[in-house]
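Appendix B. Raw example, untouched.
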Amino acid sequence: MKTDRKTIRVSSLSRVEGEGGFFIELRDDGTGDVKVSIHEAPRFFEAFLLGRSHADVPDFTARICGICPVAYQMSSVHAFEKIFGVPVERCIRDLRRLLYCAEWIESHALHIYLLNGPDFYRLESAWASKDYLPLLTKGLGFKKLGNDLLTALGGRSVHPVSVRVGGLTKAPTKKVLTPFLPRLERAYEESLAQILWAASLPFEDHAWETLWVSLVHDEEYPMNEGLMALSSGRTVPMDGFLEAVSEYQVAHSTALHAGLRESQRPEPYLVGPISRLNLNHERLPREILETLQSASVRLPIRNTRMAIVARSVELAYALYEASRIIKDYEAPQRPYTPYEPVRGEAVWVTEAPRGSLLHRYRVDEAGRVENCTIVPPTSQNLAHMEKDLRLFVGRHADRSLDWIRREAEKIIRGYDPCISCAVHVIRPA
């Protein structure tokens, strides 16, 4: 007996970084197929880093992404410092964390208010309605603050140039950073109210059991350091996490997919704000936790559509943490620690706005790159994203195609995919 089929094809997703689309096939028997296609040409960063000095790598890898260049710099620079045994002073560690806070602020603000927010008002863009302009204005204000802080720390707001192995090329004086405090404190107070706004948005019931993965740390909400934790209760060191991940190619994407080696087939998992919040919420300031409670947000979050709530929480935290670091900051006597390259290999993971970003490098005795692996958050989330969409389609196959299309776009945008980061190799013909 022939089964009728209906299809939805979106060749170019709007309000995401990069070029991608999706295909959904619905069958009358309740089955279907989902593919999130990425058709950008790969840029072969891992290949052209071969033979280059480790000192060049932080600036080269920053060019993988214009939204989260700090994440690529941090994962690489920490890996080399681990290989060379370079100690980093506490104040330099704090400055790097401040740089990461600035990136979280500008990236989360961009996604919450310009990319994902309009979905909840059925708008095609953040500029499509005068009623949305107050929210857009708030978002642009948060983003400008993050960009200004990036400029003060890194020399410029996109692809900052201050990060180097051993520390920073230049450390700012306290006089440079102190003027940011009033802006950060005002923005923090506003961000608490925005958590309440995000939690009040209409969310379709889409809760399901999933596997969360993120860094965890004994003393702080994680950004640059820690162990990799799984919601199953297991923690592994960073290099052990790479061994637990299986990357594989699919025919419809120029980005690799990833899964955990939990069974015979790679198991999809989720990285990013929901996973970080679920696994690390005890490290948040009391005021943020009380705001979540006031918003009736119950942890753990199991509905991926509520990622905008988790991002709003992390935006507030990054503003809070940036203020704390600046208040306690004293400029170091020197901005970096001298070192000598040695042969070796290391893995490091930091928490990019979109999730865990893994770098592995092997270098020779002069510190030149012999081999490297870069696993971006979006490529780790792709298999999970497709599984998410399959569950959604199976639950709502009786709805109109237009409604399914809009909701599918909302689900994808909720992951804040950075498609340009994820492109990797082209499947051989």
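End of appendix B.
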